[in-house]
Prior knowledge:
Strand order of the largest sheet: 5-4-3-6-9
Distance between the termini: 53 Å
CATH topology of the largest domain: Phenylalanyl-tRNA Synthetase, Chain B, domain 3
Number of domains: 5
Strand content: 15-25%
CATH class of the largest domain: Alpha Beta
Radius of gyration: 32 Å
Largest sheet: 5 strands, antiparallel
Helix content: 25-40%
Oligomer: single chain
Amino acid sequence: xxxxxxxxxxxxxxxxxxxxxxxxxxxxxxxxxxxxxxxxxxxxxxxxxxxxxxxxxxxxxxxxxxxxxxxxxxxxxxxxxxxxxxxxxxxxxxxxxxxxxxxxxxxxxxxxxxxxxxxxxxxxxxxxxxxxxxxxxxxxxxxxxxxxxxxxxxxxxxxxxxxxxxxxxxxxxxxxxxxxxxxxxxxxxxxxxxxxxxxxxxxxxxxxxxxxxxxxxxxxxxxxxxxxxxxxxxxxxxxxxxxxxxxxxxxxxxxxxxxxxxxxxxxxxxxxxxxxxxxxxxxxxxxxxxxxxxxxxxxxxxxxxxxxxxxxxxxxxxxxxxxxxxxxxxxxxxxxxxxxxxxxxxxxxxxxxxxxxxxxxxxxxxxxxxxxxxxxxxxxxxxxxxxxxxxxxxxxxxxxxxxxxxxxxxxxxxxxxxxxxxxxxxxxxxxxxxxxxxxxxxxxxxxxxxxxxxxxxxxxxxxxxxxxxxxxxxxxxxxxxxxxxxxxxxxxxxxxxxxxxxxxxxxxxxxxxxxxxxxxxxxxxxxxxxxxxxxxxxxxxxxxxxxxxxxxxxxxxxxxxxxxxxxxxxxxxxxxxxxxxxxxxxxxxxxxxxxxxxxxxxxxxxxxxxxxxxxxxxxxxxxxxxxxxxxxxxxxxxxxxxxxxxxxxxxxxxxxxxxxxxxxxxxxxxxxxxxxxxxxxxxxxxxx
Length: 688
């Protein structure tokens, strides 16, 4: 999983005492691998805010307007009239006098084309009228996907300001590879990353008040009836919801849309954008349901239930797919119909859209293993899944829900319309870990004082109490990975920087390992085949059921994984043949005419007793060699694959000092001949 981090947003929560290049180096050394650094500001250089002073119809085109714009004269080398105004032809239906717009002057690249074939504007005639640059839409500016009209600058600024100044587009996006933080759910949000960046710079960090202490929503201004039930507390540790009435659904501010786009999310509307903004900020996903649509799907008053999937549960998802679900997938449902998949995706029938007047805002904590299993089983991969399958702390739900509800009141003019429902199991209590500076110093190989350890940990908001030389460390609620003294050692070492620790190799006596004849023989086989010209592959032990069938094998004889890494890797292979033939197919599609590939690996088959009961599986060590030659290559190289295979076998038997016998297949054999074997061009190999 890659996470895009906005440096400008990080600066809103902590100082950055070094250059961006130095910051990237520190992140790579102490946080996570940096995949890419994007200088976003480059693509917005030269784009300015301008005011449309006058508009007249184009004489030669009904749908075009000739606009005169005021940029306060900041752009040089552009044609102006006697009043210093610039002429631009525009076809947008929403253009009007007095409007503040984003003007891309001649000589600048349209931002949306920056990463592909760059389109540089120049002054040119459009139907006989000179147009100097472009009044840009949100899509052309890579801010949103709206191309119906030009973008209206929604901030009261004077013409001539750069668009970067107005919307903080002079930004740097750092794409961090988060695999090393699979145990750190907080680091899938900007707030968590900002905290870590402060920590590795030895700067004290303090989270916003709304995150450490839940804001109060106040008494409901209206009353929307709602029943909230949690029937799956073992899989949904906390299920919270609050109704909000009289919302005005519309587009978010340009600033919010711009931020979501630059971190890889698509702006939808002000309600959905708030939930996504909070998710990016805190790593806690939320979901908004249309209250009135939920009511229509309920038997009486609106009901929202968290439960395991039941027989017949079928749901059209927000991505347009309709899926039938089974337990243990968690469904969010009314008392009659499912309306969402817990921790994965919402349903299309309760989507918040332009017609929405009332909403239910949900914030929940789902079992990370169940979310992962559901995602893999149904092939559903979302930003919510990425965060939930890391194990979000249920202790942050109230804080996040209340802050999101407050934001929705601000941006959509909604009012709280009921109590905040909180249906949860027993909430966890953060452990207190006792550790001494000596324990930490001994394991890191560097002498640390009690005060130094306390400073490093308090910088990232650990609570500390000292009794003599013992530190009693309580991790903050978002740190679900701290439980034992060794966790504290790891934390201190990372904040110090492992590159600052002394490099002292341990001393120990090493006795040579006893030679293993089996391993030596395997290596000898590899060397012989490599010398003969074959390439060794190492493939997954798991394959798709369709691949087994294509290789003439019965998936029923193979073990199926209950929690597969991917929908394509659900079965233990019965032999190496399916994997190797799949690679042959891919290589032929890529234009490789001839190849020799081999693999030495294990395969597994079910085993049964005489009474039919399943026994311990059988495991085999297998060497498989595949020679593949296209018809065209066979005429210009060493001949057909069958004869090349014979040459390989002769070489192998010679090197091993054994004699191989080949028994060609006959049309009628004592055993079934399945794909991919053709009896006319196949043989059994024996050792004499």
